[in-house]
Structures are given as structure tokens and as C-alpha cells.
Amino acid sequence: MSPRSARLARLSRSVTFSACHRLHSKSLSDEENLKLFGKCNNPNGHGHNYKGRKVISILAPAGFVVVTVLSLQEAIMEPLDHKNLDKDVPYFSEVVSTTENIAVFIWDSLQKLLPQGILYKVEVQETEQNVVVYKGEETIVK
Ligand SMILES: Nc1nc2c(c(=O)[nH]1)N=C([C@H](O)[C@H](O)COP(=O)(O)OP(=O)(O)OP(=O)(O)O)CN2
Ligand SMILES: [Zn+2]
């Protein structure tokens, strides 16, 4: 039987969540943290209205509608919305709550909820200027 090609489309869906955080690494001194993170190291934190977006791959001809709403609710809204990321979300007790790490957190959460192989990318917009895109890549660090 010869293989048939299928058109692959991407479907994107986003939610907005509000959260506060402080950029602070336990492996650095207070001085080093202040130098590295500046105003984002403010001891009492600061807040953002984040936009989280997932993009999934869909086989266009199949024509079925993937139920996409629930996974964003479970992967983003329930754990992160109206939370202090550093204090309310166990993942960020040891991981600095940068937008990059929030994107990784969301990626890992969505992977557990979605059918294998369909998650294409996660985007997290922290401010008008700061947007992180994560596609599940890993690299070796020394
Ligand atoms: N690599 C990263 N650097 C920074 C992150 C991050 O997630 N990854 N995040 C921050 C802060 O959380 C901060 O709140 C961003 O605010 P700010 O620096 O004010 O950013 P804006 O784009 O809104 O404004 P500018 O001051 O014009 O840059 C910092 N760094
Ligand atoms: Zn911030």
C-alpha cells in the first residue's frame, strides 16, 4: 500500500492569566541577583497579565475538532492564574520564574494532557516586548 500524504495545519489557542513573581535565584547572592535581575528582583515582587498560547498540529482532511479548551484550563489557568508563582506553584520554588521557565512548565503540563506528538509550540507573552516561544527543544549544558 503506498503512503498517502495529508495536509498538516496548525491550530492556535490562547488564554490570559494574571500572576506575580520575583526573579531571584537561590544559587546567587542578593547582590548578584540584584545585578542580574534589576527591578525584577524587587523583594515584594511584581505582576503581569500573561498571555499563554499553545499551537497544535492538526491533520486538515480529518476534519475533526480537537477539544482544546480544557487542556489550557488545566495546564495554565488552574495552576497559574491569580497566583504568586514563586510561592503558590511548587515547580517554581526551585526554578526561577522567568518567562522561559513558565513556557517549559506549560509545555510539560500540556504534554501530559494532549495526544502524543500534536503539541507544536507554546508561546508565553509577559509584556508587550517580551514573548517566549518553546518547541520542546533540549540541549546539553556544561
Ligand atoms: N530572559 C529573561 N529576562 C527577563 C525576564 C524573563 O522572563 N526572561 N523577565 C523580566 C521581568 O519579569 C520583567 O517584569 C520584565 O519587565 P520589564 O523589564 O519592565 O520589561 P518590559 O518589556 O515591559 O519593559 P522594558 O523596561 O522596556 O524592557 C525581565 N527580564
Ligand atoms: Zn516579571
UniProtKB/TrEMBL annotation:
GO cellular component, one term: mitochondrion
Domain of life: Eukaryota
InterPro entries: 6-PTP_synth/QueD, 6-PTP_synth/QueD_sf, PTPS_Cys_AS, PTPS_His_AS
Spans through the membrane: 55-72
Cofactor: Zn(2+)
Entry-linked Pfam families: PTPS
Keyword annotations of the record: Lyase, Membrane, Metal-binding, Tetrahydrobiopterin biosynthesis, Transmembrane, Transmembrane helix, Zinc
EC number from the UniProt entry: 4.2.3.12
Pathway(s) it belongs to: Cofactor biosynthesis; tetrahydrobiopterin biosynthesis; tetrahydrobiopterin from 7,8-dihydroneopterin triphosphate: step 1/3
Any one GO biological process: tetrahydrobiopterin biosynthetic process
Keyword Phosphoprotein on entry: no
GO MF entry, a single one: metal ion binding
UniProt function note: Involved in the biosynthesis of tetrahydrobiopterin, an essential cofactor of aromatic amino acid hydroxylases. Catalyzes the transformation of 7,8-dihydroneopterin triphosphate into 6-pyruvoyl tetrahydropterin.
PANTHER family reported for this sequence: 6-PYRUVOYL TETRAHYDROBIOPTERIN SYNTHASE (PTHR12589:SF7), PYRUVOYL TETRAHYDROBIOPTERIN SYNTHASE (PTHR12589)
Family of the protein in this entry: Belongs to the PTPS family.
Name of the protein: 6-pyruvoyl tetrahydrobiopterin synthase
Gene transcribed to yield this protein: PTS
